[in-house]
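Lab notebook, bench 4. Still working through the backlog of constructs that have no structural model yet. Next entry is a single chain of 929 residues. Request: give me the structure tokens for it.
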Amino acid sequence: MPRRTPRNALDRVRTSHRLFGFLKTASVCVLTAALLSPLGQAPAAAAGAAAAPDYCGGRCSDILPPGENGNATLAQILLNQAFGTQPAHAEDQLGPYAGLATGYPALTDAKINTFFDDASFGVPADQVASTEKPAGRGDVTIVRDKKTGVPHITGTTRYGTEFGAGYAAGEDRLWLMDVFRHVGRGQLTSFAGGAAANQGLEQQFYRNAPYTEADLQAQIDNAVAKNGARGQQALADVKAYLDGINAYIDASDSGRYFPGEYDLTGHKDVITNAGTIEHFKVTDLVALASVIGSLFGSGGGGEVDNALSLMAAQAKYGVEEGTRVWEAFRERNDPEAVLTVHGGESFPYGAKPADARGAALPDAGSVVQEPLVHDRTGTGASASAKSMSATAGRTSLGSARRGMSNALVVSGKSTASGHPIAVFGPQTGYFAPQLLMLQEIQGPGISARGASFAGLSMYVELGRGQDYSWSATTSGQDIIDTYAVELCQDDYHYLYRGTCTAMEKIEQKNAWKPTTADGTAAGSYTMRAWRTKYGPVAYRATVGGTKVAYTTLRSSYLHEADSIIGFQMLNDPDYVKGPQDFQSAAQHINYTFNWFYADSQHTAYYNSGDNPVRADGVDAEFPVWARPAYEWRNWDPAGNTADYTPASAHPNSVDQDYYVSWNNKQAKDYTTASWGDGSVHRGNLLDDRVRRLVAAGGVTRAQLVQAMADAALADLRAEDVLPDLLKVIDSSVVSDPTAAAAVAKLKAWSSAGGRRTETSAGSKAYANADAVRILDGWWPLLVKAEFEPGLGSDLYTAITHNLPVDEAPSAGHGPTGSHAGSAFQYGWWSYVDKDIRAVLGENVRGGLGRTYCGGGSLTACRDTLIDTLKQAAGLTAAQVYPGDDQCSAGDQWCADSIVQRTLGGIKHGRIGWQNRPTFQQVVEYTSHR
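Model written out:
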């Protein structure tokens, strides 16, 4: 049995005790002892793995908390729940990751691997923890290192290499993979239990991708058929990978060392071992891919919300002025927005057409969201279940996608070594086990190390090759359109090119009962989606009195498997030999991502995604009629294919002085679907710091990590908006003692940098805690008082549906809840910034067109700020941080803290807040092939 590590110093997550409340400590110990055998035989240690060519010179590092080991036997789960012990390598990357928040000020290049792990190829002989030949095969070896337990897979045949990758995935993430193949099919509650969070998760994804088994298989068939030899190789790789997963399932089942969650959820009998762990099949991987693509790579949506806020603006101001006001808040192409491609290059996409055609705006008050859940029983009909359904619906249909990734890349012209440096990674949230897993894969046509989503790890998706590294951030350009299909005959028939056509009904019936893992009482419901040629139905409404269904069509719908070719290319050392090859590989990825590249000589960037070519005059911001004149150019509904913008039209660049991305605007004239790309964006936190480094020159790895880490603790409002708010307040002497005290605290915090930092490592108390609390309480009060009087309640509320007012670290993040790390992606900071600067008489490019704070009067605006500041100062910590299932009311540090959200039986400790990638690389190549 793998060794167990003791409880560490991390703040322990509160345990609900629902899982094991019925077990007394003694009985836990007895049951654990009974389960300690039989277990899988530990592979023997052996000589170090022969390393593939590695041109990084020891300057490649990475980190992925909480740890590589995402599987735990029932015995290990019971020990963790009862005593807090951790399976080996389940949590050993969490401490170093958390430590950077307080350790970065003193960072040097020599200390980087105190907070990261060496990402060199291979394993030195004295660092080998184990060596195994999966299923006794002679053509593949899996070596694991002592420090992190990462699998280093080396194959002599392509089949053996991919078999090993699948086997290692089973060893490290089998339960998680099983969970997400059920999420992708809308079957999570039946598989893992009916907890409200499970209901919300499966509903969120089923609404966007209600696929049948035939749909899933067709996507594989089509991806293979249109990609020639590479398509055939991809299919062979997938089959070998699945063989490896299934071989591990069989071995762990017979050896009784499979993940203990199968026992706790009733899929296996703890005494007799009866029950089945279903083998994986090709369509499971498509279901998995649909979840990941929907989460991170599908920009767009929100057209109905856009229409409602436009209508509210027109109702308030009239059509012409209302449209102008709406466009000002939309900030499609704000001249003050931070850009990734910042040399002035223009990449027009999603612009407002000069003469819009085909718009199908709803009649006032007619919009109703299409219900997804029907026939609720038991806990499926509870208030919490219905609340979670509402949250899932808003999350899946809005344009505010959770991007949550960043990148800092500096050209060798500005570095101390003369070689490019990159610090980058995806911000995929925090889960236990983690959604991503680390691995190294070496075999014929494959040479890479890095992170992959569990269950899709036949290739490294973000990582490094022999002499290059790559990473991605979510881009969010609009590949989703909303169509108004005119109903005929009844509510389930629609006009398709003049013919009354039946909608296709897709149903998934789920039922659950209490298990040891999830004590949620019995319940059930049916998820029912209605599909049209133009995609699934999202809303019902009338347009000019005509009944319509609003449908959502995304270019990656029915194409969840297409991106496999791009990832195959990125792993192929014979394909990627420079920045142009990298860009070519990224062009084969149909999801919306920003891709970054660095080798010893060059840096590069490319924005991926199948951007549909829209009909002339169609404004992608709003619903349009489902008629041939307004369809995507050369759209074929049979396979959902169309004309897409050429690669040259996507933002791209080679060897720019530096690149930054934090889900900000990609380039001039390139409109993203989400709101908020204005004068203040969290991308500014990176851009300001990296620009200063580049101007000074001699940039080192440590300095670039410091820039990232400093931005990760910054409060965007405090750094980029608070100084102007204080200018307004200081336009006259502050005589009120409550306001004066609050202003003094805010000034002190601003002077200290406006960061949310602990007083000392492990103190769990913020420096400038009162100022942090005051700003957290003040911001929503301030925004409402500043804008609602001028906009009116209806328009103000409508715009908050397009763009939330705030996203402080303690804010919720859809069905996953709060404690998710990512913050300050969406909020009204740009609006406040532009409005306050206008009140101050400063130059504002791309302004809001009118001033709102105090109606434009500096004195009245100041009164508004002082009044709301006094209200905020009077709020107690318990009112600002009301507490949740993790934290007591008033616990500021805990409210911000990051929690590894449990997707299995192992719990981990909280860590202090950082706004940074989950998986992160630090790279500086010293040579090239």
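Notes after review: The longest strand covers residues 339-349. The first helix runs from residue 25 to 35. Flag for follow-up if needed.
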